[in-house]
Design goal:
Structural class: alpha+beta
Radius of gyration: 15 Å
Helix content: 10-25%
CATH class of the largest domain: Alpha Beta
Number of strands: 9
Order of helices and strands: EHEEEEEHEEE
Largest sheet: 5 strands, mixed
Number of domains: 2
Distance between the termini: 24 Å
Strand content: 35-45%
CATH topology of the largest domain: 2,3-Dihydroxybiphenyl 1,2-Dioxygenase, domain 1
Number of helices: 2
């Protein structure tokens, strides 16, 4: 068994798509639009077969996203090396994204950084 995809609602669908394409090398599909409900989505595919569905629908509640909460914590992306973690963390920081932690080696041995990106959702960059 494997996870087929992860999905997340966003307010700015185009900016979210651009983030995952530009910084993490994702490949988007052409998108989907249900004209009856105004639901829109993109599937972003990554090299190893993982997929992320970005979704948007008008009138959804956008509650504050406190990093210390139950439920979704972060999406982790393996970028291949410590140097790439460092480089991409700096690139995202320079682009105005907030680095929440790292780069660092955690107690359980991961070399990682955690960045608040799309609408304050967290991504983790790791080896």
């Amino acid at each position: 068994m494997r996870i087929e995809h992860i999905a997340m609602y966003v307010n700015d669908l185009e900016s979210a798509r651009e983030f995952f394409v530009k910084y993490l090398g994702g490949t988007p599909n052409d998108g989907y639009h249900n004209k009856t409900t105004d639901f829109r989505s993109y599937f972003i595919s990554f090299d190893d077969g993982a997929r992320l569905e970005l979704m948007n629908k008008p009138c959804l509640e956008d509650a504050p996203k406190d990093p210390l909460r139950t439920g979704y914590a972060h999406l982790a992306f393996s970028v291949g090396s410590r140097e790439r973690v460092d480089e991409l963390t700096e690139t995202l920081k320079d682009a105005g994204y907030q680095v929440m932690s790292g780069p660092r080696t955690t107690g359980d041995g991961y070399y990682e950084s955690c960045i608040a990106v799309i609408e304050n959702n967290l991504i983790e960059l790791t080896v």
